[in-house]
């Protein structure tokens, strides 16, 4: 297979002939391949780690291991510093959120609720001022609509008139 035949972005591993011969010789010596290992790490004294991703691991009968793969150097102190910086940033965000003036937030919510309730009362007051003709409507229907929607009697009667006595549609329009 030539390089031109390999698709872009494909992960290809090329095994040199010497490495392949060494693996074949190890298998002839009775070494057993271990398939379930996904990462091997070696720790040095200066907090440096050598890591091998997707290694080929062989175990001898005596309990020793032979590992094939590309070792990459990882610095634990650098990793620790990055983790501490991320933790400090998260703590700053939490402090900023906690330091919001809760009284201002609560008071603004209360003001919004008061405005909404005043608007509802003014709309109800407008409906209560005008008398709705209830001829042809049953009192029990008006009561049911009032109970289900928590609205005034005039509003319930008006909705029932608009929907020609249909209780369900009147309730839906007021909900």
From TrEMBL:
GO terms for cellular component: nascent polypeptide-associated complex. The keyword Membrane does not apply. Residues 125-138 have a biased composition (Acidic residues). Residues 16-80 form the NAC-A/B domain. CDD domains: NAC_NACA, UBA_NAC_like. Keywords: Protein transport, Transport. Residues 117-138 are annotated as: Disordered. Component of the nascent polypeptide-associated complex (NAC), a dynamic component of the ribosomal exit tunnel, protecting the emerging polypeptides from interaction with other cytoplasmic proteins to ensure appropriate nascent protein targeting. The NAC complex also promotes mitochondrial protein import by enhancing productive ribosome interactions with the outer mitochondrial membrane and blocks the inappropriate interaction of ribosomes translating non-secretory nascent polypeptides with translocation sites in the membrane of the endoplasmic reticulum. Belongs to the NAC-alpha family. This is Nascent polypeptide-associated complex subunit alpha. It comes from Pichia inconspicua.
């Amino acid at each position: 297979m030539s390089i031109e035949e390999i698709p872009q972005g494909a992960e290809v591993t090329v095994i040199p002939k010497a490495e392949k011969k060494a693996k074949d010789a190890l298998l002839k010596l009775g070494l057993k391949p271990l398939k379930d290992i996904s990462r091997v790490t070696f720790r040095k004294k200066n907090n440096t780690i050598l890591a091998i991703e997707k290694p080929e691991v062989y175990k001898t009968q005596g309990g020793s291991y032979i590992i094939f793969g590309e070792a990459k150097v990882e610095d634990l102190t650098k990793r620790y510093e990055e983790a501490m910086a991320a933790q400090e940033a998260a703590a700053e965000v939490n402090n900023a959120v906690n330091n919001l003036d809760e009284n201002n937030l609560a008071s603004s919510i209360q003001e919004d609720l008061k405005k909404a309730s005043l608007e509802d009362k003014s709309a109800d007051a407008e409906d209560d001022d005008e008398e709705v003709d209830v001829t042809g409507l049953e009192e029990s229907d008006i009561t049911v609509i009032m109970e289900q929607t928590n609205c005034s009697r005039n509003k319930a009667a008006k909705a029932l008139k608009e929907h020609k006595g249909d209780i369900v549609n009147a309730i839906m329009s007021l909900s």
